[in-house]
Amino acid sequence: MSDLDEFFAKRLDEEASFPNRGKNWKQMSKRLDAFDSGMVQGNPSGLRLWQAAAVIAVATAGFLWWKTLTTQHYNKALRQEVAAFQTDRLILEGQLAAAEKRAAAPTVEKGNNKENQNTESIEIPPSADLKRTETASKAQKLPSEKKSDEPARLADVQAENLPEEASKNFTEKQSSTTVLEEKASLPGATVLPKKEPSSLDTSSAKSSDIVFTTPTLDAVKNAPSKTDSLLVAEEKPRDSIASSPTIAQEIKPVRSAKSRFRIGAQATVGFVQPKQKGVSALRGQGFSVEAKVLRSLWVTASVDWLHHEVSTEEFVPRFHPHHDSLPKPPGGGHGGPQHPAKLVQVESAPREQHYGLGLRYELPIKFWLRPSLRVAHEWVRVSPTLVTYKFEEDNPGGPGGPNWHDHDPEYTAEKFDAQWLTNQWRFGLGLEKDIPNWTFGLWADYSKDFSSATPSFDALYVRAGAQYRF
Amino acid sequence: METNDVQLEEILDGCRQNKRASQQRLYAHFYNYAMTIARRYMGNTEIAEEVVNDSFFKVFTKIHLFLGGQPFKPWLRRVIVNTAIDRLRANMNLAPETELQAWHDSGSLTGIEEELTREQIWAMLDRLPPAYRTVFNLAVVDCFSHEEIAAALQISVGASKSNLSRARQHLRTILKTEFEFFN
After folding, report:
1. Pairing of strands A410-416, A310-312
2. Is the ipTM of this structure higher than 0.90?
3. Which CATH class is domain B112-179?
4. What are the tens digits of pLDDT across the range A370-380?
């Protein structure tokens, strides 16, 4: 710091004595009186509002946390169920393979003699047969608890996975050797063993070489049989777990991008339109809930808590929807009829709650950000508000003028009850980005007041927020 | 009026309870202090009075934000400075100066402390453009950093430095041409 700086810092910081302390205190006292007259009742409601907002925020966060946990548990249970189904299927297929081998010998000749010319033969290579045997042996390596309840589970699986008739038939056929007999009795169906199995033990199935001949598709269709459903079940791809009707119903994609509901929070900044000197930006935050009703159409509901400050040099009705008439200065002004008091400043700090209900349409545009359009109707509740008015003597001569009197400004305050504003519409455009479970977005809304009874102001809002999908 | 720390705490407690008598005592005690600060920012006693009243209004209505056990005077000073900045920002252009001129601290002041009255010093300061005067006050008297000034006035740090440099140049020119204080 140079000596010039030191000099000015020292001299300018010396406390001087100023006149008009008493006069200025009187002004201050009046201003405080006006403030107190309204704010004594005004503060608690504002406090309650924010307490309620905090409680809602905590409750929402708790709900989302709980929902995430339950979803994780649900997914885990589904995975375990799928694993159990896979295991059961392997066991079932192993049992079927063994039963077929056991039943093959006494039915060969009988089936071979019938309608041999009307068949299509499918030869199962030894390697495929080996595969079946391996899966059967895999099933035998399951944990002990799986083995212990294997019969019960098998029955369950049969009952669930197969049509009732087929399940019944399958159970009956397990105790006899008639399965392939019936197969062979179908029009055009034969089962041809190339070689006699040396044993019924599945471990020896590797060496067996069986040729299955199945009927033509038309022939099967035209021949109703109790074993139809069983045959169909046998022909299903072995890795197509979801093709089982029961499994297909239970295994659903969870938390996919096609979620139907969203809940989220957003921060909002708004600017009154047209711009008005002395009116601050609207700031606040809120929550939103959305539900998909059509492919790209969502119903949206939102609540926002916004606040702003108004300090204008004149009374602007659109910022004070509570009333449309100017208050009278206290005492009618200093100067009496000749020098009426003039309103020079209007101050208030309104708080508003915006409740919106509308529709959002996702534009079918392929882009890493997803654009959408939104239109919503809003009900706006303006909280109880204190409006402070400052009056000064209206003397055209001004200080030093012919009629100048050095009077203090007058303050008065009015407190207005809460009021509802309707017919407020928001038209918006947004960009959204999805990540697993969450959607982040930036929206621009133009709020238009169509109300004629309680005119309010238009505003341009910018919202940024995150939504949880479920 | 002499007010020690204990008395000041009692007054502040009364202000927290919205007692008018306590508010009046606080106002009376710090009125000159507040006016001194507001006067050098506003360059006008009448406007400075408005700034002081606005500042005290903020103090009385937001006294709950002032935590006990801390020195009150710096908090009050900050409120006054902020109120003055708000008023200046609303009423005049504090647009940044693009050209940065370096301050060359040539020469030294000799014996001017005794010769200049407070009114003369205020008059010199009042002759500065508002943007220069504001930055000079913030930087030199209230010891704000350029980053703090830039944030408060919503200008760039470079503009703050430039304005301070120009303020010093103006003051040196006035001192040299009108008082011939530089050797």
Report:
1. unpaired
2. no
3. mainly alpha
4. 899 999 999 99
